[in-house]
Specification:
The protein is about 40% helix and about 35% strand. A hairpin with a 2-residue loop joins strand 2 and strand 3. Bound molecules: coenzyme A. The site of coenzyme A has 21 residues, from helix 1, strand 4, helix 4 and helix 5.
Length: about 180
C-alpha cells in the first residue's frame, strides 16, 4: 500500500489519538489493566499534549498516512547532543508488517545522524514480544531493566540501545 511518511502537523492530532487508542488496547490487553491504559491515553494523548510533542524543538514527530487517514506515528527526542530516544512508535493493527515501522526508523535515524546524535535508545514493556522482535531486527540491544508505575500498576520495562550508524546499516540491509 502507498503510505506517506511525513512530519506530523497539528491537523494530525485527532488521527494520532485514534491510532493510540486502538493500538494500545490491542498491544497491552494482557499487560496493562484497562483502567490504567485509559487513564494514560486520556492524560497524554490530549490535543494540548500532542501539540507540545509535535512542536517540541528537540523532537521529530512523524506520521504515516494512507490517503487522508493516519495509520501510525513515531516520536523521537534529542535527549542530549549525542543521545536520542525513540519515545513512541505505534502502527494501527490493520497496517502492521507493511514496512511502516521500518520507514519511521529510517526517518528518525536520518534526522539523528544529521544532527550528530550517535546513540538511539528505546524503552519497551518487558512482555511486548513483537516490539522486542522489531527492535532486535534493527540492531537494538538490551541496555538495562527498570520498572515504572502506570497508574496503580508497576510495569517492567527494558531499555534498548543501538548506535545510529548500526541502525542505518541494518536499515540498508534490505527488507525483512
Ligand atoms: C512494533 C511496530 C511499531 C512495528 O511496526 P511495523 O510497521 O509493524 O513493522 P515493519 O513492517 O516495519 O517490520 C519490520 C521488521 O521488523 C520485524 N517485526 C516487526 N513486527 C514483528 C513481529 N510482530 N514479530 C516479529 N518480527 C517483527 C520483522 O523483521 C519485520 O520485517 P518483515 O515484516 O519483513 O518480517 C508495530 O508492530 C506496532 O505498532 N506494534 C504495536 C505497538 C508497539 O508495540 N509499539 C512499540 C512500543 S515500545
Amino acid at each position: 500500500m502507498d503510505y506517506a511518511i511525513r512530519p506530523a502537523t497539528l491537523d494530525d492530532v485527532a488521527g494520532i489519538a485514534d491510532v493510540a487508542h486502538r493500538t494500545w488496547d490491542l498491544t497491552y490487553a494482557r499487560i496493562i489493566a484497562s483502567h490504567n491504559r485509559r487513564q494514560f491515553i486520556e492524560r497524554v494523548y490530549t490535543p494540548e499534549g500532542l501539540q507540545e510533542a509535535i512542536e517540541g524543538d528537540r523532537a521529530w514527530f512523524y506520521v504515516a498516512a494512507l490517503d487522508q487517514e493516519i495509520v501510525g506515528y513515531a516520536h523521537f527526542l534529542r535527549r542530549s547532543d549525542s543521545q536520542g530516544e525513540l519515545v513512541r512508535i505505534y502502527v494501527h493493527p490493520d497496517h502492521q508488517r507493511h514496512g511502516i515501522g521500518r520507514a519511521f526508523l529510517s526517518a528518525g535515524a536520518a534526522a539523528m545522524a544529521i544532527t550528530g546524535v550517535s546513540l538511539c535508545l528505546a524503552s519497551v514493556e518487558a512482555n511486548n514480544v513483537s516490539a522486542h522482535a522489531f527492535y532486535r531486527r534493527f540492531g537494538f540491544r538490551h541496555r538495562r531493566d527498570y520498572a515504572q508505575f502506570l497508574g496503580d500498576q508497576l510495569i517492567k520495562m527494558v531499555e534498548m540501545k543501538v548506535s545510529v550508524g548500526e541502525l542505518q546499516e541494518k536499515l540498508g540491509e534490505g527488507s525483512g
